[in-house]
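Methods — Computational structure assignment.
A single polypeptide chain was analysed. Its primary sequence is given first, followed by the predicted tertiary structure written as structure tokens.
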Amino acid sequence: MFLTLIQSLFLATTFQLQSPDGRLHIKVVADDNAIRMQLRDEHDSLLCLADAAMTLTDGTQALSGGIRKSRRQRLSADVEAPFYRQASFHTECNQLDVTFRSGFGLQLRAYDEGAAYRLYTTRADNYNIENETALFTFAADPQVWLSHSTNAKRPYAMAFQNRYATSPLSRADTLAAFLPAVADVDGRCKVTLLESDVEDYPGMFIVADSAARGLRAEFAHCPTRMATYPWRKMTYVSEASANEIARCSGARSFPWRIMAVSRDDREMPVGNLVYALASDNRIGNTDWIRPGKVAWEWWNDWNLCGVDFTSGINMATYRYYVDFASAHGIGYVVLDEGWYNPASGDMLTVVPELNLEELVAYAAARNVRLVLWTVFNVLDAQLEAACQKYAAMGIAGFKVDFLDRNDQSAVRMAYRIAERCAQSQLLLDYHGFYTPTGLNRTFPNVLNFESVFGMEEMKWSDKSVNMPLYDVTFPFIRQQCGPVDYTPGAMRNATQKDWNAAYSTPMSQGTRCHQLAAYVVYDSPFTMLCDAPTMYERDEDYTRFLCSLPDTYRETRILAGRIGEYIVTARRDTSGNWFVAGMTNWDERDIDLDFSFLPSDTNFQATIFADGPNAHRQAEDYQTLLFTADAKKSRSIHLAPGGGFVLKLIIEN
């Protein structure tokens, strides 16, 4: 099929487009109601796009009737990016815009970092979309990284949390997978399939098609009937339309389909195409939004020890969390599930064990703010009242959980909540959520997204789960989409041999410095400290170092790394200080850290937290060292199995 597609492109009249640097080439034809496209680099084809089309329920083919006109232009922009991995960045591309007599059009962009296309329409009436199709095919049999649905019976209903299955495409599981997906093309580059600006439209899934050597797009259909799980009043789709993926009205654009190209694995964690292609900021001033670290009680099961009260969902416990946060410069405390009765579906009524107004005042006096957990549809049902009540009370925002779908109505809900909360200056942490598609650019009050196989999995997983492998895989894939609510910070740390799941006293796989490194390696402007305050208080030096790490940065670079093996990340803060962190899979390794990325005329006082000499047996073992660094120096750092390090480089006065 791949060869047939290439031949058809050359036989037909084609449009051609190049990236600004001339290294990527696109040939595209809009023919027979569909788009066919070839993306190649200076060596050979990377992939072909076949059968890209849109069909309406009335039988209309969106890309039909012939081409009315086409237009080319060079686009460039300086993108402001509050709370992103860098404060701003420059983007440049060549764009082809083709309009069809059907009232639909195609925009195709070639960036140095990859290609993207989207459909749009100028129609003014109401119309329903039966399906959108796309098949991404490859010349050979590439190695692919796919994160499959965890629900075989209802594949579009799940939390978007799974590890990556890695195999040749020809042997990939045919269960639906959620984006992003990666294909290694002949070992010379990796192509990542992503999407951006998914608004009022379902998100894309892909299914491996071994016969076509490709990945085929699929979409959840519009819900027609909802049901409710009684224990949280969480709604789910019990029946969906047989022939509609979206119900639309008027002129609009559809989501961007992205094919990001990385010639070096180090480019992947800092890919910007999802953010660059998202709709711009709609809330205006963002000065009221405060990123920060969060003392969190759910992962550690409210499990304080050595205190003179019974810990749980009560005032004494939350005062302790607030006091801990205040003493360590932590800006927030989350009240997770249980501050209201989840079975009631009423987040306006607080459980009698808590006096929320009193707790808000107690926290405010200590420079700490509270964030309230809730369920997406529960907040949506009480959105106006909840925003008014809790903003007036002084609540900072909501951690919103259990959306667990990305059909059109779910996406509408995510945007609706983001917009209304911004009006009341409430920040949001979207947990139990689909892979982000640039919503944090459009609504910067949405600071974090889950859609990651995070630390919560360590409470119940079996020993077959390889978390250090996942920890050095997802930054190259998932992090291209946006920040992650991974929730690191475990203080019980275990080797591969000694780790076991424990719900109330959970532990991490890998070393304590592996956990510490997550605070720098992962994009996360709103980061949990997942363990109990009494656990952190046992090691004040470590805890204060952790809490001193910034929450946002001016610049991010990947100094070294290979997907699934290890990663070393360097970030610069607003004062010119640098923070470098690395982590590895279960393979121990030595990192040769070259400081040539530092400015040549500046000396830095360096503090490093690294795996101790016995971390291969006792994963909590670490050592600290102080030294002076400058651009001419280098240092070797040993990482234990499942290990890590964090290096703080502060400008010397």
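Note: The chain is about 15% helix and 40% strand.
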